[in-house]
Each structure stands twice: as structure tokens, then as C-alpha cells.
Write a structure and sequence with these properties.
The protein is an alpha/beta fold. The chain is built from three helices and five strands, in the order αβββαβαβ. It starts with 15 loop residues before the first helix and ends in a 5-residue tail after the last strand.
């Protein structure tokens, strides 16, 4: 019998497969990540010195572009008529306690903003605010 100590060769760990897996995971996460997209409606907010309003989880966002077209939650209305605006605001906000936030372009017609306020008051909205930017 041969009871001599056998020389143990040191074990080597190859890092190449681990690096390959890390790069594949990195590529996977880069490809599957979704980025938040800003609104596609281009408006320039009017400037004002005001105070910040508290943020709510659920709001009805109404946008008015410079031509006077209405958008509710990023969706364009069929036309500029007040009947369409009233119908859409009524269907979108069953709960009238939800705040109505109006983003009107600085060059939007004043009549469009006044019409929105009038329609919102007639529907029963209690919490209405305009979005502006600081000078």
C-alpha cells in the first residue's frame, strides 16, 4: 500500500462565467426598464408668485394649449365645445372632492380658462387650482 501524501493542486476559480452572467443581467435590466415619459402636450405655463399646493394622490388634470384645445388627463377632447367639456369632466370625476388642476398655456385664450372654471363650478368641483411657474 502506498500511503504517501498526494500533492494537492490548488483549486482555481474561473471568474469568466460569473462576469458573463453579470453582464447578461445588466443588459436584461437595461432593455426591460421603462422610463417615465413627460407629457407630449407642449404648453408654456404662465409665471406667477404663488404658494405651493399640497400634492394629492388622485387629481383630474385639465390642460389647455395655446389654441384653446382641451385635454383631460392627457387625452384630447373631440372639439372645443363646452358641452363636450362638461360631458367629459362629468364622466372622469364621479367624486367631486377630487381636485381639478388646470394647466393652461400662457398664450391660451382667457375665455377658455374662464369657460373651464364655469363648467367646473356648475358640475360641482370644490377644489380647483391653476398650475404656474415661478419667474
Amino acid at each position: 500500500m502506498n500511503f504517501r501524501n498526494k500533492k494537492n493542486n490548488p483549486l482555481e476559480v474561473s471568474l469568466t462565467p460569473m462576469i458573463d452572467v453579470v453582464f447578461l443581467l445588466l443588459i436584461f435590466f437595461m432593455v426591460t426598464t421603462t422610463f417615465s415619459k413627460e407629457t407630449s402636450i407642449k404648453i408654456q405655463l404662465p409665471q406667477a408668485e404663488g404658494q405651493e399646493v399640497e400634492q394629492h394622490k388622485q387629481v383630474v388634470l385639465l390642460m389647455i394649449d395655446k389654441s384653446g384645445q382641451f385635454f383631460i388627463d392627457g387625452r384630447a377632447l373631440q372639439d372645443k365645445s363646452l358641452a363636450t367639456l362638461t360631458k367629459e369632466l362629468t364622466t372622469v370625476a364621479a367624486n367631486k372632492q377630487i381636485p381639478l388642476v388646470i394647466n393652461a398655456d400662457a398664450n391660451a385664450p382667457v375665455q377658455a380658462a374662464i369657460s373651464v372654471l364655469d363648467v367646473a363650478k356648475n358640475i360641482g368641483f370644490k377644489n380647483i387650482s391653476f398650475t404656474t411657474q415661478k419667474e
